[in-house]
DNA sequence: GCCGACGGTGAGCGAGCGCTTAGCGTAGCC
DNA sequence: GGCTACGCTAAGCGCTCGCTCACCGTCGGC
């Protein structure tokens, strides 16, 4: 919860780093289209149309349709890694850092679901060299989570038999949020983040957290 | 693990119900192609080629490419539901039935990964009416798992605050196996199934299993 | 031996794809 | 005002897509 400005509500639009304004509009349009229909089912005409431009305008700012996906995937993975690093390297016990990592990672997957969907599910649409770059980032993501769990095992806070397998399961659980989360559904990203942090603490054998009196308690 | 014949090793090929032999070959080819590259990136020429036929042969057995996906999705969801029903309606405590359900469901997602990938991730490529049919099956899948968890809560075996949310998380965890499982990776489907059954029992607050003597046994 | 049914092929249709190119309007500098 | 640089468009190229159609070989019934 240290990363308050990164929650969903009044979040900073994460595409401000994409500098010519027209290029950013095209990229945002591509994120929406890719998330909605998938990379291969999205046409360059659709992307340009959503950005209010003619089909040819896309090629002034991006060499190919795949370069668009690559930029999106790269920026998205940087963001995801940043979120986990902030939590993993914060102060506090392994328990607190794991809960923080899971809840903020889940909040991102739920609140920025369109981006997360593209980032997590359109990986094999990239060419070999671009995919290799992204896979390297994903290994760093895995390492951050594994690091927290190893800390917790070393300090005796966690009880985990298979650290690598549990790391995989924790990340898997968080990532799949991007598949099923519904913006118009009954749960807010914050609620899902809190629920998942609790479930993950149970998975690693940490003592359950029920600290607050009168805690919200999802019905 | 009552469903011994359904494990991965010498499993029954689940497409025997697809009756003209050529139609089955086409369908199996389509499953492989869809799993590898996604529905939209797969061409009818590729499917027919994998089945050793000319592109036109596909249309003798299926009206459209989408009908192929529909048949695959329908049969796959029937199978997944059958696996969960067998576990959910078996004898034994809620603890045993939940462990059985998770481990067999996970074994299916890992061992029949190509099928599971198509079934779980190509849902929105279906048209509205076909998708509605499949969504109804998915609601039944959800109900089976929720039923076991409710039983466990009622009997005091489980400690769960948010039954619907936990059900969602359990299914989410199992389904995502189809995304990351690698046939050439270090884990067998059976190992992942056992690991995940243990993790899920922890998630619902059931006493850990620890069959081996000399196990650490926290609390 | 002839015939119809059936499962298959080769060629190709209209459409839509990713992407290119020639040219245009405008803003900024002199 | 004259000129260049730049962002953008209209038109369209070459290609591949899902799908169709005219035709063909084989095989069981008579």
Question: What layout of secondary structure does this protein have?
Answer:
Two copies of one chain form a homodimer.
Chain A: H1 21-37, H2 44-50, H3 58-61, H4 65-88, H5 94-111, H6 113-121, H7 128-154, H8 163-175, H9 177-180, H10 189-203
Helix pairs in contact in A: 1-2, 1-4, 1-6, 4-5, 4-6, 4-7, 5-6, 5-7, 5-8, 5-10, 7-8
Chain A binds a DNA duplex (30 and 30 nucleotides) through residues 20, 22, 43-45, 53-61, 64-65.
Describe the protein in words.
The structure is a homodimer of 219-residue chains. Chain A contains 10 helices and no strands. Chain A is mainly alpha-helical and 219 residues long. The relative contact order of chain A is 0.13. Residues 1-10 and 213-219 of chain A have low confidence and may be disordered. Chain A binds chain B through residues 37-38, 40-41, 121, 124-125, 159, 161-162, 165-166, 168-169, 172-173, 175-177, 179-180, 187, 192, 195-196, 198-199, 202-203, 205, 208, 217-219, and chain B through 37-38, 40-41, 121, 124-125, 161-162, 165-166, 168-169, 172-173, 175-177, 179-180, 187, 192, 195-196, 198-199, 202-203, 205, 208, 216, 218.
């Amino acid at each position: 919860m240290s990363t308050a400005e990164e929650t969903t509500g009044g979040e900073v639009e994460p595409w401000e780093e994409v500098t010519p304004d027209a290029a950013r509009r095209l990229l945002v349009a591509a994120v929406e289209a890719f998330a909605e229909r998938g990379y291969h089912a999205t046409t360059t005409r659709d992307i340009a149309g959503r950005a209010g431009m003619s089909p040819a305008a896309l090629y002034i700012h991006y060499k190919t349709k795949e370069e668009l996906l690559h930029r999106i995937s790269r920026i998205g993975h940087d963001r995801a890694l940043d979120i986990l690093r902030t939590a993993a390297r914060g102060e506090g016990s392994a328990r607190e850092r794991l809960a923080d990592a899971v809840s903020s990672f889940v909040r991102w997957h739920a609140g920025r679901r369109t981006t997360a969907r593209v980032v997590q599910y359109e990986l094999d649409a990239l060419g070999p060299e671009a995919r290799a770059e992204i896979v390297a980032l994903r290994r760093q993501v895995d390492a951050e989570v594994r690091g927290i769990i190893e800390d917790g095992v070393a300090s005796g806070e966690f009880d985990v038999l298979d650290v690598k397998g549990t790391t995989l399961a924790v990340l898997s659980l968080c990532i799949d949020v991007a598949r099923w989360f519904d913006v118009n559904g009954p749960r807010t990203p914050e609620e899902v983040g809190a629920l998942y942090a609790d479930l993950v603490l149970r998975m690693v054998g940490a003592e359950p957290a029920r600290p607050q009196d009168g805690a919200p308690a999802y019905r």
